[in-house]
Specification:
The chain is α+β, with helices and mostly antiparallel strands. 45% of the residues lie in helices and 14% in strands.
Length: 186
């Protein structure tokens, strides 16, 4: 029994020799209630023996009190940890009740990149362009005819020339076909 105490002491402290000696001395004189009962059998009747017994009894009772204090402290710490865990579990359950997770949720399907119509027109949903069967394109967000910015030549007075369709749009909104020179009316 004392050897196990020596091994445990050597692994936990830098001063293992002193702890080993103390452990051997403690093993010879058990503490607590058992130590107090073993000490009662010596009945030599001397004052020295009485004082030694009194001192040992006092040490044994102090050891009992210390053990019960340690046990009570451990019990209270365990009860506090258990109560904190229960509160955390209750709060998590309450939060889950307030914010339920949808289990059958299916995200809506997005639009197809290109939607084809029966009349031959299409809508490109990535660029938001509606291309009619005759080839004209309309911006679906503004409703205005789409003109490719690469085919635009901007003039200083606010007019611009659509080189793809050969249409000159004046700053007042008048549109002129540059091939025929005729005014386009809409």
């Amino acid at each position: 029994m004392a050897i196990a105490s020596v091994n445990a002491a050597s692994s936990t402290s830098s001063n293992w020799l002193k702890e080993a000696q103390d452990s051997l001395v403690a093993a010879e004189t058990p503490g607590g209630l058992l130590g107090a009962l073993q000490d009662a059998r010596d009945s030599s009747g001397s004052v020295k023996s009485f004082l030694a017994k009194s001192q040992n009894t006092t040490a044994s009772l102090a050891l009992i009190a210390q053990s019960s204090q340690t046990s009570a402290g451990a019990l209270y710490a365990q009860m506090a940890a258990s109560a904190a865990q229960k509160r955390a579990t209750d709060q998590a359950a309450f939060a889950a009740k307030l914010n339920p997770v949808q289990t059958n949720y299916t995200p809506p399907a997005g639009l197809d990149p290109i939607i084809y119509f029966d009349d031959g027109s299409t809508i490109d949903t990535t660029t938001n362009l509606w291309t009619k069967a005759d080839g004209t394109q309309i911006d679906t967000t503004t409703g205005q005819p789409f003109i490719d910015p690469a085919s635009i030549v901007t003039m200083a007075n606010g007019a611009y020339l659509d080189t793809k369709n050969n249409i000159l749009t004046m700053s007042d909104g008048t549109r002129v076909d540059t091939v025929t020179g005729l005014k386009i009316t809409v």
